[in-house]
Amino acid sequence: MSIANNLTQIKSSLPEQVTLVAVSKTKPVANLMEAYDAGQRIFGENKIQEMTDKYEAMPKDIEWHMIGHVQTNKVKYMAPYVNLVHGVDSFKLLKEINKQAAKNNRVINCLLQMHIAEEDTKFGLDESELNEILDHLKLDKNELKNIKIIGLMGMATFTEDQNQIKKEFLRLKSIFDKLNTEHSQMNTLSMGMSGDYELAISCGSTMVRIGSSIFGNRNYQ
Ligand SMILES: *Cc1c(COP(=O)(O)O)cnc(C)c1O
Predict the structure, then answer these.
(1) How far away, in angstroms, is 67 Cα from ligand 1 center?
(2) Please, which of 79, 119, 133, 165 could form a disulfide with 156 given CB 3.0 to 4.6 Å?
(3) What is the pTM of this model?
(4) Cα–Cα distance for residue pair 197/14, rounded to 1 Å
């Protein structure tokens, strides 16, 4: 199967309200251009340097999403162009994104990453940390004008156990619903990857991050 075919097939299976982020990490620009030529305009990367190189090499009507863990000292490299940062997990990081966005006269969209998996290797906030950040934001309303929090992101445990994954997605959805009733601009729920996006959508995802099902398996050598 070609990248274009994979993309068409996946797109046609997604409900209209679900946004597809094509996760292109480790893949060469030629592969991304194949997806671009097939109509894809949203790409997700997990390393700022790699994303910036691709941003520079590719057409400028692409939306770039940072889906990986973000180091504060690297925010400045993506601040001129990034559209959505999925993995925000501290107030300190939000402040840095705000600062760098302001320098570029931009507003950068952010998702707060929640820890929903059982593994402790995955980044993210628990509910009390989430509420702490939201409280900070209420107090700092006038300060952080250059970021906009538009929702939540989460990754389920890496397991074959569909019930486990479903339980985690539903928990994230219920946190999201609570937030969404209080803050109407928080309307994006980023959950679901190649192996679990259909389940994620049935649990209420509005944004799926799909890599290997579009571009093939990644080779990390
Ligand atoms: C790599 C990655 C994906 C895509 O994974 P696939 O299984 O290849 O679809 C999605 N989300 C995040 C955060 C990732 O790092």
Answers:
(1) 8
(2) 165
(3) 0.96
(4) 9
